[in-house]
Amino acid sequence: MKKTVFLIGLVCVLFVSKSSAQDYSRSIGLRGGYPTALTGKFFTKENVALEGMLSGYRGGFEFTGLYEIHANAFDVPYLSWYYGPGFHIGAYNDRYDNYYYRNRDGDGFILGIDFILGIEYTITDIPFVIGVDFKPGFDFAPGFWFNPGAGVSLRFYF
Predict the structure, then answer these.
(1) pLDDT by 10s per residue, the chain, length 158
(2) b/e string for 66-100 if b means 16 or more Cβ within 10 A?
(3) 148: preceding bond cis by omega (within 30 degrees)
(4) Which has the closest alpha carbon to 157: 20, 43, 68, 35?
(5) Alpha carbon 85 to chain centroid distance?
(6) In Å, how far are 16, 23, 108, 110 from 27, measured between CA atoms?
(7) Exposure pattern of 19-50 as b/e (b: 16+ CB <10 Å)?
(8) Is 72 inside a domain boundary?
């Protein structure tokens, strides 16, 4: 009987510990920096997430999709680093700043690849995640262009 009670207690403690240490599964919020965007993240596995960003881009819009691998950072609870590849696609209108983007005149589309490296902290007292990342992007269409991106994100998790 004592062994049974002990095993049940042990299973309950492990279950409670696991649930309180779990990261969030979905989040939505804002990213400030380049690009400034609405952002959402969805975990498909414990350490794999898909993140989407929707931002304004040169008088148009851009959608970025990222595949991120997460891991604990510095053995600090609720602190994780992440990295991964992605892509972006969008439409633009260059008429608002022809001098700066003089190699791209008129309207068009944009297509390219992205990479992300960041660190984020899950605030357990309130349902928010704050993160900092470096997200370089490379445009391939309509021409080659390098975008060194970085930002700070604040997302509500649920």
Answers:
(1) 555 444 444 444 433 333 333 469 999 999 999 889 999 999 999 999 999 999 997 788 999 999 999 999 999 999 999 999 999 999 987 655 555 555 555 678 899 999 999 999 999 999 999 999 999 999 998 888 899 999 999 999 99
(2) bebebeeeeeeeeebbbbbebebebebebeeeeee
(3) no
(4) 43
(5) 11
(6) 22, 11, 31, 27
(7) eeeebbeebebebeeebebebebebeeeeebe
(8) yes
CATH number at residue 95: 2.40.160.20
Q: Is residue 14 part of a domain?
A: no
Runs of H (alpha helix) within the chain: 2-21
Is residue 108 within 8 Å of 101, Cβ to Cβ?
Answer: no
Amino acid at 115: F
For 52, the 3-state DSSP assignment is strand
What's the predicted TM-score (pTM) here? Answer: 0.79
Mapped onto helix, strand or coil, the DSSP state of residue 97 is coil
